[in-house]
Amino acid sequence: MLKFILRRCLEAIPTLFILITISFFMMRLAPGSPFTGERTLPPEVMANIEAKYHLNDPIMTQYFNYLKQLAHGDFGPSFKYKDYSVNDLVAASFPVSAKLGFAAFLLAVVIGVAAGVIAALKQNTRWDYAVMGVAMTGVVIPSFVVAPLLVMIFAITLHWLPGGGWNGGALKFMILPMVALSLAYIASIARITRGSMIEVLHSNFIRTAAGEGAADASHYSAPCAEAGAAAGALLYEASFRGHHHRLNGH
User: Fold this and answer.
1) What are the structural domain ranges in the chain?
2) pLDDT tens digit sequence for 106-123
3) DSSP string of 45-100?
4) pTM for this structure?
């Protein structure tokens, strides 16, 4: 596992380098500057600001200085928030993103696997069709469309949950963004789990168990549940590898 993570990190370096280079030159070659706004600054003031942030240096000098800063873990100053660096802003927001992402991950695995198992055990029934219908809807609708709909329904119309804020990570503030982030993964996990479960239910092992009189589902529910959980984990492994689109194509 450690070798896999290290290999993936090393493979990401060239991609990151290309993205950093493209974004840097696009920002530097765009008209205006980060300090060009509605209020026009006197030329001497603008010149002093650009000198402070080394924006008047040759573009290649800026580029290599930027790479040197990145190599030391310094993302530079924030042009929007005075007296703050990008590192400060990332450090303040990362715990929130990490907590929300982990919560969405758990929600997607639990609900996705459970829905897939139910759909497989109730194959070709209304339960199966309902789960797969919701799953397909969750796959095709992106989270940036689902999120405002959830806010409009549960925050603005019903007043059940807050429509924004964090409040130290209180549960009621996490529910809507957590659901919006996890819906697509819930749908994909449910589909994959259902397929894996159906394959197991039609395997020789299950047929043999049923033929030997093990009519009680408890005799073979464990291998079915393991297959469903493995299918759910497969999706997250694939999304970590960057092949989530391949799974959605099956």
Assistant:
1) 2-74, 89-248
2) 898 888 888 888 888 888
3) HHHHHHHHTTTTS-HHHHHHHHHHHHHTT---B-SSSTT-BHHHHHHHHHHHHHHH
4) 0.67
